[in-house]
């Protein structure tokens, strides 16, 4: 090799090296600013009993660097959650536990997490918010949920409750394998005459080996994260798990993005994931081995306790022994968490009580039977309201007895239920006569809550009030449609 004894040559080489270093630094600078698809906070249970707040970000790319959260008081690093399938989820979900009452910024960005209050006053309730494939424009945000989210973001919110079912376009009811069509397991919804609610198999999952319809980030992006963007960072969320988030459907994504479990210190439950989903070429009849049930948990806020029940696998029309027994145990667990001193709301996707048409069978048979079999044979007296979704409408059911009122908020985007009995009527629901009010229009519910347990709610469609609800209406109809 020729020696560099010429000053000009040495200067030229040094200039090239310096230029290369600058280019490298520029490349690193770009790499340090990954695309952030979403940022949000959620409440989750802790080992101590106090609620945890997780701040999560969804970053483009697998194994992306997780950002740091910053405030005037401190910097908080975020760490990656376990990715269940990097081929179908080419994103990194990062999380950290954050304190109450502190505004945090994602370092190097203008993205801010709103300060989280322990005493929620303004509560927003939405549910069943995606759009079915036939109603969606491919690659675009789900509507009308996107517009509802824009409108809802104009309302004050300290807490957002989502009743479940986020991803419809990615969760069709059946799949084809070798030219034959098979119903995907849906806890009985896809087999309404099967008294065993698909538990005897064969088990078909869109996430099984051989499936071309596995749960995918793009479906989650378009059905939930993009349309929900105006709301995502405005307040902490509680994400109920719907039947569209079963492991046979969009369960992998729900556990990755929205699940209450975490591997961070202090979490009451680890990050959960779906078990093996089998092989379409050899469908299994041991269905229970492919299911995942989230244990019930409590969130103790000031003046209000939320009890969260994963009812995704609770069959609407029948009460098969295996799942009914499991839900009986979970209801006993919830009862042990509840005290007469703390006002509680029960949050669960499938309603304990709901009806589509007057005079027809009411849902949910599994939950009703499990409750009847529980130690107390009824919900704890501290439970003053049950919030659900599942049925694509808004409905309130008010009972004359100690049974708490039930609200169904399942009208936030997906195609609405057809041929339902609308208006106000009475019907026998689980052996009790109920005042029922049903509205089949798109919307969301805003609730103003007081620490004495009283509350006032308004069902809105973004332009007008559809109904008003009030705890003081008891024992009459808790909600009434606007004239």
From TrEMBL:
Stretch forming the signal peptide: 1-31
Lineage, uppermost ranks: Bacteria, Pseudomonadati, Pseudomonadota, Gammaproteobacteria, Methylococcales
Keyword RNA-binding set for record: no
Entry-linked InterPro entries: Calcineurin-like_PHP (IPR004843), Metallo-depent_PP-like (IPR029052)
Domain Calcineurin-like phosphoesterase: 122-392
Organism: Methyloprofundus sedimenti
Keywords: Signal
One family name in Pfam for this protein: Metallophos
Listed name of the protein: Calcineurin-like phosphoesterase domain-containing protein
Example of a GO MF term: hydrolase activity
């Amino acid at each position: 090799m020729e020696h560099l004894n010429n000053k000009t040559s040495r200067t030229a080489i040094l200039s090239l090296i310096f230029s290369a270093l600058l280019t490298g630094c520029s490349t690193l600078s770009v790499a340090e600013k990954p695309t952030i698809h979403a940022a949000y906070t959620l409440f989750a249970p802790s080992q101590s009993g106090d609620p945890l707040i997780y701040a999560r970000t969804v970053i483009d790319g697998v194994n992306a660097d997780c950002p740091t959260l910053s405030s005037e008081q401190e910097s908080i690093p975020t760490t990656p959650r376990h990715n269940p399938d990097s081929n179908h989820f080419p994103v990194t979900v990062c999380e950290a536990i954050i304190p109450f009452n502190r505004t945090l910024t994602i370092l190097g960005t203008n993205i801010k997490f709103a300060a989280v209050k322990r005493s929620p006053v303004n509560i927003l309730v939405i549910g069943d918010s995606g759009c079915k494939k036939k109603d969606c424009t491919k690659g675009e945000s789900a509507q009308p949920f996107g517009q509802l989210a824009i409108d809802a973001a104009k309302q004050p919110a300290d807490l957002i409750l989502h009743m479940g079912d986020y991803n419809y376009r990615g969760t069709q009811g059946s799949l084809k394998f070798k030219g034959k069509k098979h119903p995907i397991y849906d806890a009985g919804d896809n087999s309404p005459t099967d008294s065993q609610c698909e538990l005897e198999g064969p088990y078909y999952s869109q996430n099984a080996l051989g499936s071309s319809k596995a749960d995918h980030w793009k479906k989650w992006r378009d059905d939930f994260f993009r349309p929900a963007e105006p709301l995502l960072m405005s307040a902490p969320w509680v994400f109920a798990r719907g039947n569209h988030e079963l492991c046979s459907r969009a369960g992998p994504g729900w556990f990755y993005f929205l699940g209450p479990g975490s591997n961070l210190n202090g979490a009451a439950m680890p990050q959960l994931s779906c078990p093996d989903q089998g092989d379409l070429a050899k469908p299994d009849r041991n269905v229970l081995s492919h299911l995942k049930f989230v244990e019930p948990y409590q969130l103790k806020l000031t003046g209000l306790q939320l009890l969260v029940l994963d009812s995704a696998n609770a069959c609407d029309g029948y009460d098969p022994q295996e799942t009914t027994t499991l839900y009986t145990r979970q209801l006993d667990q919830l009862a042990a968490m509840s005290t007469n001193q703390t006002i509680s709301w029960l949050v669960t996707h499938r309603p304990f009580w709901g009806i589509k048409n007057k005079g027809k069978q009411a849902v949910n048979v599994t939950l009703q039977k499990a409750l009847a079999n529980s130690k107390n044979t009824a919900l704890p007296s501290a439970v003053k309201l049950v919030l659900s979704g599942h049925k694509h409408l808004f409905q309130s059911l008010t009972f004359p007895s100690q049974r708490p009122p039930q609200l169904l908020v399942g009208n936030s985007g997906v195609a609405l239920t057809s041929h339902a009995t609308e208006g106000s009527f009475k019907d026998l629901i689980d052996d009790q006569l109920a005042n029922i009010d049903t509205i089949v229009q798109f919307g969301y519910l805003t609730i103003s809550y007081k620490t004495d347990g009283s509350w006032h709610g308004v069902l809105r469609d973004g332009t007008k009030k559809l109904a008003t609800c009030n705890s003081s209406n008891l024992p009459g109809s808790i909600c009434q449609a606007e004239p």
